[in-house]
Structure formats: structure tokens, C-alpha cells
Amino acid sequence: MKNSRSVELVVAPREPHWVGDGFQVHNFIPSGPRLDMYRMDPFILLDYNAKHDFAPSLSPRGVGVHPHRGFETVTFAYQGKVEHHDSSGGGGVIQEGDVQWMTAASGVLHKEFHETEWSKKGGPFQMVQLWVNLPAKYKMSAPKYQAIKNADIPSYPIDDLGSKVEVIAGEYRGIKGSATTFTAMHVYNVSLKEGTKFDLTLPSHFNTVVLTVEGKILLNDADTVPSDYLALMANDGEQFSLEALSDAKFLVLSGEPIKEPIAAHGPFVMNTRQELMQAFEDFNNGKFGYLED
Amino acid sequence: MNHFSLKSFLTTNLSISEDELDAIQKSCIIKNYPKDAFLLRENEHCRHILFVEEGLLKQYAIDEKGKEHILHFATEGWFLTDRESVYFHQPSKYFIQTLEPSRIAFIDDGFLQKLEKKSAKFRDFYNLLLHEQIRYLQARVMMLMSQTAEERYLQFTKTYPDILLRIPQTMVAAYLGIALESLSRVRKELAFKNFRNITT
Known about the structure:
The complex is a heterodimer of chains A (about 290) and B (about 200). In chain A, about 10% of the residues lie in helices and about 50% in strands. Chain A has helices at about 35-40, 115-120, 275-285, and strands at about 5-10, 15-20, 25-30, 45-55, 60-70, 70-80, 80-85, 90-95, 100-105, 110-115, 125-135, 145-150, 155, 165-170, 170, 175, 185-190, 195-200, 205-215, 215-220, 225, 230-235, 240-245, 250-255, 265, 270. In chain A, strands 1-22-19-24-17-14-13 form a 7-stranded antiparallel sheet, with no helix packed on it. Chain B is of the alpha+beta class and about 200 residues long. In chain B, strands 1-8-3-6 form a 4-stranded antiparallel sheet. Chain B has a 4-stranded antiparallel sheet with strand order 2-7-4-5. In chain B, α4 (about 110-120) crosses α5 (about 120-145). Chain B is globular, with a radius of gyration of 18 Å. The model of chain B has no long low-confidence stretch (mean pLDDT about 90). The interface between A and B is medium-sized, with 24 and 22 residues.
């Protein structure tokens, strides 16, 4: 039996705020208790759009043109569809169950909106946006996308009832995740049927959280994590148990800390203040490209 | 969001005694405002110097056709006031409004004038600030008289490095005295010239 990892804190969702007019998000990282950028390294932001019903709209809601530099944005679509476009001519639609892993690195200018046809119908919308920091040596590398379709995400069945671990990055029981990453991490979407229980073993120094997006789960037979709550795991061991108290779906993030200084302002996350100023200058001077609003 | 307290501004820039600092702080009122709050309206008398601890302000006038002309933005660490109103006691021609939730220190002008008389050090410092503002206003006048749209835009980004991400383009155009289309054209041309010259 590997040494057990305890639950450090179960965190309630904070008051939501709007990102543009399309995303109503609860921020967990970095503004939640004990969830700052250094504690959660390499995860520097976690915005959770809990289930929200959008009325039909002919003009899609979303967030207009904005830049990123120095990290990766990872969008997990649980319900609803998001369309994105960027300054190098790229674009696509993130569908339910898909994950988009965008390496902004040296700079991307993009916009994200509800997909046009989905927007016309409206309905429940649920997403997570995660920012994963990049080590200094990759911060100015070329941007890239990994558009990961749900059908292409390998999964490991936990029972015969449909409980499974979808391995998005890293690995689980020998199954390698779809996304390539710059530092070591494990990222899973887990579906668990009521009453099913299983163990996760993750390196103790990897910073780890579990976000319940549906249902209710019990950690280590003791701590209940209701829907829309996040559990921060302590770094005191490797193995912990997860049990569904009702049919549940949750996101597991576990990453090896990069342990470098962080200088962050708005959409730029660098190592020094000077690099931040350079990011603003490059953005102002068009070095991130151009994209119509 | 940035934080920039008046106290740290004064202690960083001015060798000031604890008593003087206390007196300034006591004469200040610090208030929090939501987005879109008015701190000054046209025809009111401006009686304070505003210091932005957090957030963003704009000072603007509306012409007879209803068009908005933005005189200044003030981000964290900036002072803002209507000099004509506060010093010459004229009704203001301007509005001052928050563009983000903001934390503002209101410094009483009468108190500053008394402090200037009492402390030579403070007078010199205040004099320097006024000259900094005159320098900025001269550059702003020359910008509006003689610069191309691109030159205006580049000067603007040097004055306010992080503001493009915080305000709509229409406000940038209203500050630069150019049409929105000209601003879009300038930004597009710069991007075509500079895009992808950044990967090391």
C-alpha cells in the first residue's frame, strides 16, 4: 500500500464574474484560498463556468480579441460549443467532451465565442478554462494547438457500468494521454457511477486538485466534494480514494511544479517584470498579429 | 489588478517625515467606486486632486454635437484633476468617470497649498509634478497638431503601456483624435510589419 494523500481543503465556488458576455466563471486558481499561482504551480489559473443556461442569441456571446503569452490555455467543454479564431488564421469548434490545448507561448491573439448554430438555440453551457505555465525556456517558443476530439481521448474503464478515466494528458495505468505537455502532469476527466470507488496514485510533489463538475464524490471515505466544488489535495502522500455518492463527473489536475519566478499581469505570464513590459510593448506594436473584432 | 497606494507613491518619491505623511493621509479620503461611476460632472466645481490607487479613470468633455473627446486616462499611480476648476475655481468643463472598479484617493487642494507653504521639500516635489504634467500636455498638444495616426498611436502606447487591453478601441480613437477606422488601419499595418518577429 502506497502512502496515502490527504485532502488539504474543499473549496466552495466563489462569486462568479463574466469574461466577456459569454462565460460566467467561478475563479478557483489563483484567487481561491491556498490556490495561488505558487501553491498550484504549474497551474496558474482555473476558471470554471458552472452549468449556466443561455437564452438563444442570433449574435453569439463570447470574449473578443485578446492576447496571451508565456503559458498554455486548456479549454474543457462539458456542455455547449465554443468557436475560436486566432491571428495566424487558425480556428475551430470545441464540442462537448472535447479539449483544446493551446500553447500560446511567444504570443497568440484570439477570440472565443459560442458556436453560431449552438448560440441560436442556446441551452446549458459548462466549461473549464485552465492556464498551464510554461518553463522559461519554452515561454517564447512557437504557438501551437492540440484540438483533442472526445472520440480520440483514450479511456480506462473502472467498472462495467460506464465508469471510466479519460486520459487527457500524462498517463493512467499505462494509458497515455492525448495531449503532449512541456512539463510532467496528469490530467483526467473521470466519470463515476453512483457507488463506484477507485484509487488514484499521483506523485506526492505534484500539485493536485479535483473539481466536481457533476454529482457528488467522497474522498478518502471522509471528505464530500459536492458539485461545483474543488478539492485541493495535500502533498503528503500519493494515493487517495474517490467514490461517487451520485453519478459524478470530475476533472483531476496533477502537475509537477516548475519552481520558477512568476511575473503575471492580465493575459501575460512571464518570469520577470521586464519580460512583462516587453509583452505589452510587443502586443501594442502588433507583434501578436491582427484579428478583426 | 494593480495596487498602487498614495502612501507608497509618496514614500518612494519624496523624503518625507512621518508627521507630514500622516497629515497628507489624514487630509485624504479614499473611496471605492464601481465601474462607470462619476467623480466629476460638467459644471460642478472640482475641489480635489485624484490619485488612482487601483482602477482606471477617464477625463472627457462632450461637445455640442454629443461627441466625446477624451482628454486623459489615469491608471494606477496617476494623478488627475481639472486644474482650471480646482485652482481658478471655475465650473468644470469635464466629466471624470471610472472605467473599471476603482480605488481613488481624494487629496484636498487647499491642504496641498498649505503644505507647500510649510514644506520646501514638498513644494519642490509638487513643482516637479506640475512640470511633468506640463511636459506631458505639451507632447499631447504636438501629437494632436502634427503627428500621423501611427505616431499618435505609438506615443499613446508608450504613455499607457497596458491600457489597450482595458478599454474599447472607440475610446483610444477618441483620445487620439482619429477615426476608429484609422486606428484599426494603423494597428493592422503594424501587425503586418511586425507579426511573427518575436519567436526567439
